[in-house]
Amino acid sequence: MVKKSSGISKLAIVAIVVVVVVVVAALAVWLTTTPPPAPVEKKIRVAVIYTTPIEEPWNTVMHEAMVWAKENLDIEYVYTEKVEPADVERVAREYIVAGYDIIVPHSWGFWETTVKLAKEFPNVHFAQGSGPTDIEYPPNVVLYDYWIQDAAYLAGIIAGKMTKTDVVGVVTAYAVPDVNRLVNAFAKGARSVNPDVKISAIFIESWFDPIKGKEAAKALIDQGADFIYAERYGPFEAAKEALKEGKKVYCFGNIVDQSKLAEDVVLASVVWDLKTFVQHLIKMKREGTWQGGIYNWGMKEGWAKLVWNPTLKNEVPQDVLQLVDEVQQKIISGELVVYEPRDEIWDPARWT
What we know:
The chain has 10 helices and 12 strands. It is α/β, with parallel strands linked by helices.
């Protein structure tokens, strides 16, 4: 009787070995020729804290830049508005605990809290909107401000050249350094082309009070002002009322292009464009190259712009348009530097 084999035949074993060798070889080839999958890039999360309503121009320009970054730079953006300085620490801590990468406290009144939290959370990055420039900030803090005095200077040139009364005015918030820079730059621009012009500024002691702003503008118009730099809301309404009474009063918008708010009186706007700055913040965070310190960008970096109202630009004499273009090029090239340290202080005697 023939005994049957209960094991695997030698031929089967050889076949299995051949298959294993082929599979291993193919796997080795695949591993050496197929690149590893690209790592998923972490989405940068940004939280902005505003002290006044989002409609206030200082806030609007940051909000617009962040919305732009959300759409173009693939970031997450959230914000809280109407936050009092006494409450900003609570709000900021909530964002930090939630894992946000960049915290933007967008108000002068927040800077002390920002410094405190930056020291406590060195791995979180902060962009502080306005604050003193004579102190040392933690390395994870960027200090920025609306250094748009270059554009305010150009607005002053327009006012100084076109005024018929030799009286121009400013309606503004508080006599703090960042505001004073704008008021003084506007005054310098006007005086550079008209040594007889007088500049009158009214500080309404509020960041957002359109009623006070309107009343201040009416007072300036009563004093003979026919150009008003509306650093705050309110003057446009006063100028429109004056226009109905037969008085032509031109206004300059501030921070954002405000031409459409009052196309019949806003001649141009002193604009703060934060898109390049926000892009820089995101790039630093994403690449791990964060560099803190004071950022005083200007017209050269696309930060400050003078934007004409197309509806009224044809009312500007050609020689004024040409002069503004020439001075702008001097500012961009560095031939003309508008800012000087004494511009941080408001001294009305300097301009009356």
